[in-house]
Amino acid sequence: MFHIPRRDFIKGxxxxxxxxxxxxRFAHAFPSRPDETVIPWLDxxxxxxxxxxxxxxxxxxxxxxxxxxxxxxxxxxxxxxxxIDVSNWKLEIDGLVKKPMALTLAELKxxxxxxxxxxxECSGNHGFPFFTGGIGNAxxxxxPLADLLAEAGVMKNGIxxxxxxxxAGDIVLKDDIRDVKMHQxxxxxxxxxxxxxPNNILxxxxxxxxxxxxxxxPLRLIAPGWYGIANVKxxxxxxxxxxxxxxxxxxxxxxxxxxxDHNGETVWAETSVGPALLxxxxxxxxxxxxxxxxxxxxxxxxxxxxxxxIDDGPWLNATIDDGDKGxxxxxxxxxxxxxxxxxxxxxxxxxxxESGQIxxxxxxxxxxxxxxxxxSNGQVTxxxxxxx
Length: 388
Hints:
mainly beta; Sulfite Oxidase, Chain A, domain 2; Immunoglobulin-like; five-stranded antiparallel sheet; five-stranded mixed sheet; globular
C-alpha cells in the first residue's frame, strides 16, 4: 500500500468536496429516464492511432450530464505535455505594450474573477473516423483578459495578440524555397479586437477546482465561441505585435481549404480555423420498456431548434432541455421514439440557430467541397439496431 501525506490527502479531499458541490449545483437536469438501457451504436469510432496526442475522448453513449466531469474531459497535445512548477512560473505580457508585466498565479487570482460555461470542441472533431469525441462542456473560472491588456496599455500600432504555450516541439519546413528546422512553442493569435472581447478569460479553475494538467494547468486562455485550437493551454506569454502572426498552427496546419465557385470559376479559399460553427450530434438511443428515446447535443451558436431524421423519414422537432441557459454551452435535446420497428436504422440530427441558419448536410457544397478535415460541422448520422 502506498502512503499519501496528510497534507496532500487534505488538499485532495478538499478538491473532491469542491467538485461535488459544483456538480450538485451546476449539473442541470438531464433528459434521461430511470432504469433506461442504452443501446450501443453500430458504427463505433475506429481505434485511436495517436493516443499520445488525443486523450479522453467523449463516449457519446455515456453522456449523462450537462457538465463534463474533469476526469472525462478530452485533451489534445500538439507537442509535449509540459509539467509546470507553478512556484517558478509567471505569465509574461509584453510586445507592443506600454507596461510589460509578469504575474504569478497567486497574483492573477487576486484579480477580479469571472465565470463562463463553455462547450469546447476541437475543430478536427468528426474529421477523422477515430475522432468523434473531441468535445466537452465545463464551467471555467479566471480573470478577464481585456482588463490585463488594458492595464498593460496596448500601443496604437498593436493589432495582433499572440498566446504562447509552454509546450514546444521541433518543426521542419522543407519545400522548393524553404529548408529549416526550428524548435518552437505552441502559439496561436487573434486580432486585438477579438482578444478584447469581455467574455475571454485567463482561466485557472475548471468545474470549481484547480485547472487539471491535461487541460492547461496552471493557466489557459478560454475564448468562448472559438474552436479549441484558439483556447491555448499551458500559457506562458501574451505578446502584442503590429502585424498578423502566421505560425505552423495558424498558417499551415489548422487551415481549412475549400473549393468555391465564383461566376463559374473555381476559387480555392484557405482560411485559418477560427470561431466555432453550428453543429449537433446524436449522443445515444435508450430504451425503457418498449419506448425509445434519442438524446443528443447542439452547440456552436445560439440554438433555435434541433431536428431529427430517422432513416429517410421527415425531419422531426426535438425537445430542447431548457434547464441550462449558458450562452456558450451546448444544448441537450431529445426525441421520443415510440415502438420503432426492429432492425437497423439511421439517426441524423441538424441544429438550426436563432437566425435560421441550418447545420449543413454532408453533400452541401460547404462540406462536400472542403478538402481538409478541420471545421467539420456537417450533419452527423449514426446507425442503430433495434432488437426484435
